[in-house]
Amino acid sequence: MDWFTLSEEEWTAIRLSLLVSTVAVAASLPFGILVALALSRGRFWGKSILNGIVHLPLILPPVVTGFLLLILFGRKGPIGAFLDQHFGIVFSFRWTGAALACAVMGFPLLVRSIRLSLDAVDRKLEDAAGTLGANPAWVFLTVTFPLILPGVIAGMILSFAKAMGEFGATITFVSNIPGETQTLSAAIYTFTQVPGGDMGAMRLTIVAIVISMAALLASEFMAQALGKRVNFE
Amino acid sequence: MTLLVDVRHRLGDFRLDAGFASDGGVTALFGRSGSGKTSLIRAIAGLIRPDEGRIVLDGDVLVDTSRDIFVPKHRRRFGYVFQEARLFPHFTVRGNLAYGRWFAPRDAVSDSQDRVIELLGIGHLLDRRPANLSGGERQRVAIGRALLSAPRLLLMDEPLAALDEERKAEILPYLERLRDETKVPIVYVSHAVHEVARLADRVVLMRDGRVVATGRVSDVLSAPAMNSGMDRREMGSVLSGVTASFDPPHRLATVQLQSNVLHVPNSDVAEGAPVRVHIPARDVMLAIERPSGLSALNILDGRIETIVEDSDGMVTVRVDCGGDVVHARITGLSVERLDLQPGKPVFAVIKTVALDPR
Questions:
Q1: Are residues B229 and B262 in the same domain?
Q2: Residue of chain B whose Cα is closest to the Cα of A231
Q3: Average pLDDT per block of 10 residues along chain B, 358 residues long
Q4: Residues of the domain holding B12
Q5: Are residues B206 and B64 in the same domain?
Q6: Which residue of B has its CA nearest to A143?
Q7: Does the pTM of the predicted model rise above 0.90?
C-alpha cells in the first residue's frame, strides 16, 4: 500500500477542498433559502429575471462564470473593491475566492431543490399555524422549515458535491495556487500535466470517489431518517 | 361576549355582503354550499381581508376598513377548526396540542390540557403521528389543538363535512359536550341541518352571499325563509327535551318534550341529558282522527296554528301540540280533502325511523 501514501501537498489539497466546499455551502444556504422563498412565494416584477440569473451558472461555460467573477469580485472589480475597502474581504487568489466560485456554481442546485420542496408545502398548514397564534416568522421556523428540511438537505448535498468537483470557474477566478486555491480537482489536473503524475492523480481520484460516495450515502441516510419523521399524510 | 360582523367582499363573480351579531353560545352559519358562509367565517378568522366592513369582538376592533384597521390572524386569538384537520405531520398528537398552547398568552384563561384531552377522548393518541390516526381522531385532535390556544372565539368550518356518517356520529357528542362544558363562544359553519339542529343556539341562514334570516334554531329552521334559503326537504321543527328512559331490547329511547313523549332511535346519550330532536317536516303526517293500527310510534295531538302555501302547491302546516310545535309538509290536495283550517284539532304522526340522527 506504499503507493497509496498521500503526500503533504495532496493532504493539503484534500483539506482545502473540504474547507472550500463546506464554507461555500454554509455561506450560500441563507441566501439560497431567501431566493427560493422569493421565487416560490413572492409576486414581484422581474421574478423570471431573478430566476434566470440564479440558473445562469448551470448553463454558462464555467470559464465564463469564472471570468465574470474575476471582473466583478477581483481587487479592481466594483464589488471586490467595495468589499476590500469596507470589510477587508478579499477574494482574488485566495481560498475565499475558490469558495465564492463554488458557491455560485452550486447555487442553482441549492435553490432548485429548496424551491421544489417549498412549492410542495401545504400552505393550509401555515394558515392553521397562523390561526393558532404563530406570527409569520414562527410559522416558517416551526412549520415550513421542518417540512422543507429534506429538500434543504438534498440541496446542500448537491451543492457540496458540485463544489467538490468545481474546476473551471475556480481556476479561472483564483488560479491554481498550491495551499491557497489548489483544490482536489485542480490538484488532479496539475498531476496530469506533469510526466509521471498518473499515480498521484489516481490517488486523489480515489479520494474524490470516496468523498462523493460518502456524501451520497449521508444524504440517502438523512432523507430516510427524515422521511420517517416527516410522515406525510 | 358580543361579536359583531359586517362584511362586504368580492371574490370573482361572487359577492359577499353579510353581517350578524352573536352574544355567545353556538351561532351556526347555515346554507347551501356556495352561499358564502365559509368566506364569512374566513373573514372573521383573518384569512380573508374584506374589501369593506367591520368585525368587533367585545369592543376590540379586529377589522374596520373605514379606519384601515386589520388585525392579522395570529393576533386575533380565534381558534379555527378546518374541514380537514390540518394537523402538523412533523409533530406527534402531543406536539400538535402543545403548539397552540405555546403561542397562547401566559395569563390567558383556558381549559387545562388534561381536561381538553379528557373531553375529546384523545388521551390514548398522544404519542401517535397524525398520519396514523383515523379521520375522526384527527378532527378531535384538531379541535383540541384549537381549544388549547386559549381562543376568545372558536370558529368551526364544516368540521364534520369530510367525515363519513359513522365518524360524524362519533364526533357530534363531543361537540355537544364542548358547547355545554366550555365557555368559549362558537361560530359553526354547516350545510347539514341535523348538525345545526343539534348544536346551534342561533342560526344565521345564508343564501347567495347574503343573510336571509337570523334567529333561534327552532324559529329559523321552520320559518318560511327556509324555503327560499335552502333545500325544502331539510325544513323542519327542532324540539328540545330530556332523555327520559331507554328500551334496550328495541334500541329505543324516549324523550320528554314539553307535554309529549317522543320515541326516538337510541343514540348514545345519558338518561336525563338534554337533547334536541329535529323533525323534518316532510316526515310528518296529519290525521283528523286518532289513527289506529299504525306502525308509527309517535302520535301527537294538537291544534293547527297556521297553514302556509308554497309556490309549488305544497303546504306547510304548523301544529301546536301542547307547546311542542311541529311542522308538516303536505300537499294542497290533502288540505282540501281533510278540510284543514287554523284552529282545527289534528294528530301529527311521526315515524321514529325518520328521527334517526344518522
A1: no
A2: B89
A3: 92 91 90 88 93 92 92 91 92 92 76 83 91 90 91 92 81 84 89 86 90 86 60 76 84 86 77 81 90 89 88 84 89 91 92 74
A4: 3-234
A5: yes
A6: B88
A7: no
